[in-house]
Amino acid sequence: MNGLQIVVCGSVVPDPLQTLEPTAGPAGPVLKNEAMLPAVLDPWAGHALWEAAHLAAAVPGSKVWLVALGPKAKLQQVMMVVGQKVPFELVAVDGPAGGFTDSHETAAALAEAVKAIPGLDRSRLLLFGGWESAARGAGTTLALVGARLEIPDLFLGVDALAVREDGSLEVLERIEGGRHQVSVCAGAPAVLGWATGNRPEPRNNPQVGMLNMRGILPALQKARPAPALGGGVTFEAVSLPKQQRETRVVKDLPAAEIARELVAWIES
């Protein structure tokens, strides 16, 4: 079979270990001191990128692109780290990223960036991304990108993907009740929204980093500006979710007793 062309859609998000406080900005809600917050690659997109690199290494002739939408300065900060992990070609889109954008508008910008990739053979395309996002978790962006690219086969909550000898795809998806289902489709093109997958974050590889940097810096310099985002959705109010933590240290408590306490706490 011919190699696969894997496009991973991902963005940057504030480091989830930081305290994120929404506040009112001139054009709608923003995060307090957002420009000063350290950024990371969205963890869900990261899972997709590690899986894409693993699959590309297993299928000769395959290639991985990372299509990333975010403020150029933040993208540069994050790509200096991610570029050390796995081989990919960056396609940068300069625009706002976060929890206060409309997934339809974001999907339109990402789809146009994918369509503009030179030489991309869409008959061999696997569109990867997270089935959710650490920004807001609308869970709709990747499906909307796939729709704009006219790809009908969509799988969400993917934990494993196997490419058979005939080119067909065997997909392990999460379904309700903590169960999985196995689906088979004829092959590319397809859209796969990854859950956590099975690949840990790779260690830094200086050789990979040197190769990636040759493409990352030029890609950042010519990052296309995204159309104005944010006009398609209005937020009446935003606030942090209420948090409550009550910790007890108990040794040798049976699992069944722990479960009963959790259920009682949830129902209270």
UniProtKB/TrEMBL annotation:
SUPFAM superfamilies: Adenine nucleotide alpha hydrolases-like. Keywords: Electron transport, Transport. Residues 38-197 form the Electron transfer flavoprotein alpha/beta-subunit N-terminal domain. The keyword Transport applies. InterPro entries: ETF_a/b_N, Rossmann-like_a/b/a_fold. Pfam families: ETF (PF01012). This is Electron transfer flavoprotein alpha/beta-subunit N-terminal domain-containing protein. It comes from Anaeromyxobacter paludicola. The lineage of its organism: Bacteria, Pseudomonadati, Myxococcota, Myxococcia, Myxococcales.
